[in-house]
Amino acid sequence: MLRGMRLATALGVLMAGCVAARADGPVPVKIGVLNDRSGVYSDISGEGSVVAARMALEDFKPAEHGLKVEIVSADHQNKPDVGSAIARQWYDRDGVDVIMDVVTSSVALAINQVTREKNKVHINSGAGSADLTGSQCTPNTVHWTYDTAALANGTGGAMVKRGGDTWFFITADYAFGQALQRDTSAVVTKNGGKVVGSVKTPFPNSDFSSFLLQAQASKAKVIGLANAGGDTINAVKQAAEFGITEGGQALAGLLIFSSDIHSLTPKVAQGLVLTEPFYWDLNDATRSFSDRFAKLFGGKKPTAAQAGVYAGTLHYLKAVEAQKSARDGAATVAKMKELPTDDPLFGKGEIRADGRKIHDMYLFEVKKPAESKGEWDLYKLLATIPGKEAFRPLNEGGCPLVKG
Amino acid sequence: MAHAAAPADAAPIAAALPETRDTKALHRIVFIGLAVLLAVLPFGLYPVFLMKVLCFALFALAFNLLLGYGGLLSFGHAAYFGMASYVSAYAAKNWGVTPEIAILAGTLTAALLGLAFGALAIRRQGIYFSMITLALAQMVFFFSLQAKMTGGEDGIQAVPRGRLFGLIDLSDDRVLYVLVALIFFGGLLLIYRIIHSPFGQVLKAIRDNEPRAISLGYRTTRYKLAVFVLSTTLAGLAGATKAIVFQLASLTDVHWSMSGEVVLMTLVGGMGTVFGPIAGSFVIVAMENYLAEFGAWVTIIQGCVFVVCVLVFREGIVGLVARKLRKPL
Amino acid sequence: MMTILGVPTQALFGQLLLGLINGSFYALLSLGLAIIFGLLNIINFAHGAQYMMGAFVAWMLLNYAGLGYWWALILAPLAVGLFGVVLERLLIARLYKLDHLYGLLLTFGLALIIQGLFRQQYGVSGLPYAIPPELSGGQRLPFMFLPNYRGWIVAFSLVICIVTWLVIEKTKLGAYLRAATENPTLVQAFGVNVPLLLTLTYGFGVALAALAGVLAAPVYSVNPNMGADIIIVVFAVVVIGGMGSILGSILTGFALGLVEGLTKVFYPEASATAIFVIMVVVLLVKPAGLFGKPA
User: Fold this and answer.
1) What confidence tens digit (pLDDT) does each residue in A230-288 have?
2) In A17, B117, B219, C82, which residue has its Cα 20 to 30 A from B249's Cα atom?
3) Which Pfam family, just one, is annotated for this protein (chain A) (predicted)?
């Protein structure tokens, strides 16, 4: 019912937009939020990202800046072909100028290509693949929130500095898991640590007890979980059952979000160490944003991916305002790179030549139940990793844009 | 009710309708109508959407050849569709071959895979056949997940569409559409020929009563293997083409839910009808596309379609039309 | 320390025990599937979804009614079993005269609907469900640390499997059931209410799935997709055991758990594929499965 109404309004606005474009009125901008709204990543991004994008409009006040902005959204069902078909249709027929979010690497990489082909803009928030600003970087894509290289760097480097110098990896046996293990191992060894072993697990997998026992037997100080989503949740849950952290080993999640920790509860996840670019309880600005968000979204606090959609939308609109047009995607992205970024959620930062957004990352530890004062009071800040150190150095990604 | 599976039930009503001379005329009209539709539709509908429908329609047609005319329910057809799409994408991207070679390479892969898997699977019947095909397809899925060439979860991305025969640039959606429409139509004609050839007649005889066909002196396993390989080859053709259209190949196409989806398309359109799978895939792809706004409701609606089709609409869209016309379609 | 192929024997014992625990889930789930297939000739694709429902009902009982794990162990299978009875009466009963294929497709559709609705309502991150306090903690065995709850899973599912098998093999009700599997018309002629028998059987099979779901809730992530992947493995278990063979499904369930446990030590990447390889080999050598009667 509500969705139907929203669709109707969207159509109405669309018609109004067409009329407005012909007149010499405000610059029309159409934002498409494309993500997983039904599958495994719908809690990380999903409808919450649309809410975040709408909040960005509220705060930017497009009318005062000579823009006329509307938002559409769709579910890519984690299927690259579905995502790419929607993106093509949006760009070709529906006049969408920018696609936001796009969780799931396979879909993100597909959207990345379509966007370049059509010379539009893609601001990615939800996906982790560092290839988006590496070998597959384009002049039309900005990767806002995080990537696997930064997570590996953050957790791997910071853990070794804190004494966790022997590692055992539990790795999901496919490209993503292996990349995560490879990147983290490199950081661990570079910082003087040692990888004592690893086990490859089938994917997806629900029973980790056998692999956890192998990890326990390795006597490594840190057990790195190079997996994601349901796999990580199952691994953490069973690690608690087998008393892994009580035995003195630390558990490090290499890709895990606050929504996952919330679902696990601090009782089960306590002591887990992880890296995130955003947490609702960092400072006054993030707290007030998150309270507003929670009021609009059933009491849930925003995830990093959703925060990235908010901040990315704000910065994109600033660039469009400066350009006075959203037509030329590459030009808009060039403008975004030229303007320094500044928003309430990620603070001051910049967008690099390869499209990588630079901001601080944070190393967190999940609180013990006794320390947690509420349902969403999940993390204790261990360290802040400055943006300059957090991300992969510009010249190491292999992005063709960098050479020029 | 016990273990005696009645194969006649699997063969839907429409296929059992007698063929007469004016049936041929009717089919000719349908073919012409389809050709006209293929020519006209891109002016109204979005070409990429249409190409997706055509790829899936060919996939469903291939699946239906096996189910509707061979009486074999494969629950692992995604393996052939998906592997072909991987090989086609890999060939176009990493070997830099022209698209027609890439598509051929993918199709050939599906044929060989079909030959190997088919030789194992057709030794068993009924539900066991379905389960073996499912198990084999699961192995293909795990292979695709772990192999280097498939790129794991990321899939093979940024596949160039290239130039057909090194001459015609396919980057324009409309040009590519013509190619896809031709492939689809060619596939359809081939399947139609197979069904109406002596080979097809023997298949129907085996489907309806295998012991009788054996006693008539037919080597039924050879026929079953042949139709299995034909079906996987055409499924591969569809998958290989899809990889060129979308410029990617991913795990979605080898996952078992894709095997379920093609059953759904065939079921909705009408099992054992020649044209049913086309209608079915149009409906399902359109649903997936236009309901994308509604998030989780897409799977719920798909589930409802399954339930309703099985309970009250077993003959499918085209099956229903065929019954009204009292002619097989 | 003694080793076998480079793996310490102690670690091997641990892994075998864990395999047995996983095998308990396979056994419970495949037992339900086998009973349903044996009598109804329906491949119950919704079994995974019903397993998931069991875990969710346990969560709901705790959060909406304040009823803990032990209540859930009784109430959740009853509730989900009742749901199964309704499904059978309303939908599945209409398909008995048709090919297997339609039963498979109908339950496949049902699985999509059930999983979709739960996703819509509860999201996908999963819900927390704690191990009951009576069973928390664990035993330090000579070769491993065994959480009490894992021990409980094996013991409890063994008991359930054995009781179910005894009921089917040794009681009058079981005799009817077996007879109805062989020849329903004849049994009906003897005055047994076969349709009722079918309904109750489906309900019981579904209840077993829900029971497995409750057992799984404290150790696995309780989310709408939890049954979607396990169901394919359980299918393989049933096929290897011989479709419809009760004893076959129980034994194969535990045995495959052990085999999977071993592959996790020696070749972990392949542990998900191992079962399917075994299935293909078994079907080629023994077409009707290990314990099935040849057709």
Assistant:
1) 889 889 999 988 888 888 899 999 989 899 999 889 999 999 999 999 999 999 999 99
2) B117
3) Peripla_BP_6
User: Measured between CB atoms, which of B5, B256, B267 is closest to C105?
Assistant: B267
Is residue B128 less than 8 Å (CB to CB) from chain A?
Answer: no
Interface test with chain C among A207, A219, A233, A245, by most C beta carbons within 10 Å: A207
Question: What total of structural domains would you count in chain C?
Answer: 1
Q: Is the pLDDT of residue B143 over 90?
A: no
Rg (CA), chain B: 19
Choose between B120 and B125: higher pLDDT. B120
- Does residue B300 register a pLDDT over 90? no
For B307, half-sphere exposure in the C-beta direction (CA atoms, 13 angstrom radius) is 20
pLDDT tier, B4 (very low <50, low <70, confident <90, very high otherwise)? very low
Partner-chain contact B46 A202, CB within 8 Å: no
CA B2 centroid distance within chain: 31
Q: Model ipTM?
A: 0.82
Q: With beta carbons under 8 A apart, name residues in chain B contacting A174.
A: 145-146, 152-153
> What pLDDT, in 10s, does the model give residues B54-70?
999 999 999 999 998 88
Inform me whether the C-beta atom of residue A268 falls under 8 Å from chain C C-beta atoms. yes
CA dihedral defined by A32, A38, A40, A42, rounded to 10 degrees? 50
Q: Strands C3-4 and C7-8, how do they pair?
A: antiparallel
Decide if C138 and A42 are in contact by the 8 Å CB cutoff.
Answer: no
Q: Which of C221, C261, C268 sits opposite A237 (nearest CB)?
A: C221
Chains touching C by CB (3 or more pairs below 8 Å): A, B
B3 with C272: Cβ contact below 8 A: no
* Token pair listed for C21: 């625990």
Residue C39 sits in which domain range?
A: 18-117+171-285
Question: Is C90's Cβ below 8 Å from some Cβ in B?
Answer: no
Report the predicted TM-score, pTM, of the whole model to 2 decimal places. Answer: 0.84
d(C-alpha C58, C-alpha C222), whole Å: 10
CATH of region A149-276+360-390, choose from 3.20.20.150, 3.40.50.720, 3.30.200.20, 3.40.50.2300:
3.40.50.2300
Contacts of A209 in chain C (CB under 8 A): 18, 21, 150
Q: Show which of residues 145-204 on chain A sit within 8 Å of chain C, judged by CB atoms.
A: 173, 199-204
A11–B contact, CB cutoff 8 A: no
Distance from CA of C6 to the nearest CA of A (A): 13
Question: Is 60 exceeded by the pLDDT of residue C222?
Answer: yes
What does CATH list as the number for A2-146+283-359? Answer: 3.40.50.2300
Domain ranges of chain A: 2-146+283-359, 149-276+360-390
**Is the Cβ–Cβ distance between B137 and B78 less than 8 Å?**
yes
Q: Residues 147..206 of C with a Cβ closer than 8 Å to B: which?
A: 181-184
B167-182 pLDDT, tens digit each: 888 888 889 999 999 9
CB nearest to A81's CB, from B153, B252, B292: B252
Nearest CA in chain B to A117: B171
- Can the peptide bond before residue C77 be classed as cis, meaning omega within 30 degrees of 0? no
Residues B77-116: pLDDT tens digits?
999 999 999 999 999 999 989 999 999 999 999 999 999 9
Question: Do the Cβ atoms of B52 and A86 come within 8 Å?
Answer: no
